[in-house]
Amino acid sequence: MDWIVAPDSAGRGLADVLPSALAALGITGFTDTIGIPGCRTAVVVLVDGLGWTLLHEHASHAPFLASLAGGAPGRAGFPTTTATSVTSLGTGRCAGEHGVVGYTFAEPSGGLLHPLSWSTHGTAEAAAGQRSSMLDAWQPERAQPHPTVFQQAAAAGVDVRIAVPRDFANTGLTRAALRGSEFRGVQAFGDLAAELLDAAGAAGPTLCYGYHGHLDLLGHLHGPGSLPWLMQLEQVDRFLSSLAERLPAGSALTVVADHGMVTVDPGETVDVDTEPTLRDGVRLVGGEVRARHVYAEPGARDDVCAAWREHIGDRGLVLTGEQAIDEGWFGPAVTEDVRSRIGDVLAVMRTAGVIRSVLEPGESALRGQHGSLTAAEQYVPLLVTGG
Q1: Quick one: angle between helices 82-91 and 17-24, nearest 10?
Q2: pLDDT at residue 266, rounded to an integer
Q3: pLDDT at residue 243, rounded to an integer
Q4: Where are the alpha helices (DSSP H) in 247-317?
Q5: Are the C-beta atoms of 9 and 380 separated by less than 8 Å?
């Protein structure tokens, strides 16, 4: 499939960003494959939803970021979704090892885990809009047992901080992906900048990660490239330009994103909830509109795969989970624990999307979507300045 952009295998994926930052700080045991200059403070800012393609298409609205975008893009990994990408960034590992394999995915009790809220639901509960917390039943530290890059940095004597929305404190995803850092809760551009600058002024080697999510939010609601999205992009560009100007000497700023985004025409979507053939032999449907994990009943995988492949046609690619693993979509290694979280069948979309109008009405109605392996979703900026 010529539209498929496979995850990175050459050191320019999200999993390579923080190890590169530690190498730039002079911490032994880490290698810089991104090109971050030697520094005393490494500041990494993730702008949710800022795809490489979108940045180039709308460069006039982001002159500072565009001025840094002369090199090659990075790749988000698979699927191109926030929970997976943030965990790849925080652990320095791909999804096949860290185990956060999608927007939703199968968990041990038989339901679907929603890692952004670390809650689960079965099919009946989803219809009633109910979710149950999994923080005790499947602790994030057990679901994602590998040490994070932040833990490794702290053990090496680095001052490690994260400046992220206050609501992220002690959430399952924060515990799974970002543990080992000093949490600094923020609410807007102002205190985000203040926390990043405070970290940059620390005495010793410092790693600080910051997150901004409103560009992604407006892309989902109005579509990427819409006027609200463009106005937010302009604000993001000014914020990062101002931050870069104020960072003291010896600081390196790296700007990344977790995925790009595409606009989905509601009239072109495939609806699992109104198409019985897509539910025959199916136990659970996870993932999201552009990348679905389909969990089959015992013995039904091949029939499910054939039915989905026939229905999706040339709008996407349908393959078994084992085929996706063999293609390296989840990284060079997939542990046995993680294999059970990956769908028996995967559907990734070239155009349109696969919605669930009854069970996921909110997600299904969004204009902007991501998750698949098109260039617009996979390529992300890896922008570096300072040092």
Answers
A1: 30
A2: 81
A3: 98
A4: 301-312
A5: no
- Contact status, residue 196 vs residue 244, Cβ threshold 8 Å: no
Phi, psi for residue 116 in degrees, rounded to 5 = -65, -30
Which regions of the chain are under pLDDT 70? 122-129
Q: What is the pLDDT of residues 66-122, one digit of tens each?
A: 999 999 999 999 999 999 999 999 999 999 999 999 999 999 999 999 999 999 975
Are residue 143 and residue 284 in the same domain, yes or no?
no
Work out how many domains the chain is built from and give that number. Answer: 2
Residue with tokens 């085929």: 323
What single letter denotes the amino acid at residue 24?
A: A
Is 290 within 8 Å of 82 (Cβ atoms)?
no
Decide: 288 and 102 in contact? Cβ < 8 Å.
yes
104 φ, ψ (degrees, to nearest 5): -140, 150
Q: Which helix (H) or strand (E) holds 151?
A: helix 149-155
CATH number of the domain bearing residue 341 = 3.30.1360.180
Alpha-carbon distance of 134 to 25, in angstroms, equals: 37
pLDDT digits (tens, 9 = 90+) for 153-194: 999 999 999 999 999 999 999 999 999 999 999 999 999 999
* Cβ pair 176, 214 in contact under 8 A: no
What whole-number distance in Å separates Cα of residue 23 and Cα of residue 15? 14
- The CA dihedral of 122, 128, 129, 133, to the nearest 10 degrees, is -50
What are the Cα distances from residue 8, in Å, to 1, 42, 320, 331, 378? Answer: 17, 23, 21, 8, 9
Question: How many CB atoms within 10 Å of residue 181?
Answer: 24
Is 104 a domain residue? no
pLDDT at 122: 58
Closest alpha carbon to 18 in 38, 40, 39, 36:
36
d(CA 166, CA 193): 14
Range of the domain at 289: 264-366
320 and 337 assigned to the same domain:
yes
pLDDT, position 144: 98
